[in-house]
Write a structure and sequence with these properties.
CATH superfamily of the largest domain: Glucose-6-phosphate isomerase like protein, domain 1
Number of domains: 2
Strand order of the largest sheet: 2-1-3-4-5
Radius of gyration: 23 Å
Number of strands: 7
Distance between the termini: 83 Å
Number of helices: 14
CATH architecture of the largest domain: 3-Layer(aba) Sandwich
Order of helices and strands: HHHHHEHEHEHEEHEEHHHHH
């Protein structure tokens, strides 16, 4: 009678073996004693591990730049940009899509987050949903159109739901950007951003370093895309939407800083433009009527640097 070892059993269970070899599932030797050291030492070790993330992201700046160009090109052509992911990765996409409209004045219909398991999964985990390849494939087939962009996010790189979405995007004719913390990932996409952040402080807890790295990359992708799309002047949010009192004050402050004019004057110009900072600034500095300022901005594709220098 042949005796089958536990290692052989693991290898025979293909999925078990594959998952056990993922970089995101490796044991972190540095934090192996984390349950038997002081609280301050626990926090120091977590912080030490977090400190490795920015350098891992820095190594992929060229790839991130390629992704930002694709997003900008699609945005300027009024194409849609979809974020898709499961668990922490999906929630990162939701956060990104939610924050772009008030920050840069983009339409919430143009930047769309798709959360594996539906909207309820943003607040309550639906872990099994990520295992269904067909669901990811179908949702992109339903929503996506040629030359739209898919930003697929999966820390492990092998999430079936996300891989289904990527494969569907290819068939639809969409551009695809894949953000993962699996440096071994070889998935065929237009831009692959495969980060090497090392094993998590707590084995497999990809909401930690992987989540932080993902957030940094998404920030860079969308912010850079907005900068090269004319949504920023110097480093001011000139397309900010005044949807709260804080943002009203920001719009007034930005106007005053750019023009050198006082708050009373700022309010006059901003009220005349329904608090459109770009239009108000061009009106004030170029001594133009609202319609003429809007025309000039349109002629320069929204780039204030080309109008004001």
């Amino acid at each position: 009678m042949k005796i089958i070892t536990m290692r052989e059993k693991m290898k025979n269970n293909n999925k078990f073996y594959i998952y056990s070899k993922l970089p995101t599932e490796k044991i972190n030797k540095y934090t192996f004693d984390i349950d038997r050291i002081s609280l301050k030492e626990v926090l120091k070790k977590i912080n030490d591990e977090d400190g490795k993330v920015p350098e891992a992201v820095r190594k992929k700046i060229s790839n991130i730049a390629d992704g930002a160009k694709i997003i900008s090109e699609a945005f300027l052509k009024n194409k849609k940009i979809y974020f898709i992911g499961a668990g922490t990765s999906g929630r990162m996409g939701v956060l990104e899509a939610a924050e772009l409209p008030p920050t840069y004045g983009v339409s919430p219909e143009q930047f769309v987050a798709i959360m594996c398991g539906g909207n309820d999964a943003v607040f309550k985990a639906k872990e099994g949903a990520e295992d269904v390849y067909e669901d990811g494939f179908k949702i992109i087939k339903k929503l996506g159109n040629k030359n739209d962009v898919l930003i697929a996010i999966a820390a492990s790189g092998i999430t079936p739901y996300v891989r289904g979405a990527i494969d569907s995007a290819k068939k639809v004719g969409m551009k695809s950007i894949f953000v993962t913390c699996n440096p071994r990932e070889k998935k065929s996409v237009d831009v692959l951003i495969a980060l090497d952040v090392g094993p998590e402080a707590i084995n497999g807890s990809t909401r930690m370093k992987s989540g932080t790295a993902t957030k940094l990359v998404l920030n860079m992708l969308t912010t850079a895309a907005m900068v090269i799309s004319g949504k920023v002047y110097h480093n001011w949010m000139v397309d900010v939407k005044t949807t709260s009192y804080k943002l009203v004050l920001r719009a007034e402050r930005v106007f005053c800083e750019i023009t050198g004019l006082d708050l009373k004057t700022a309010k006059k110009f901003l009220k005349a433009t329904d608090y459109n900072v770009k239009t108000a600034v061009v009106m004030a500095l170029k001594n133009l009527k609202k319609e003429d300022a809007e025309k000039l901005i349109k002629e320069h594709n929204g780039f204030l640097k080309d109008i004001l220098g």
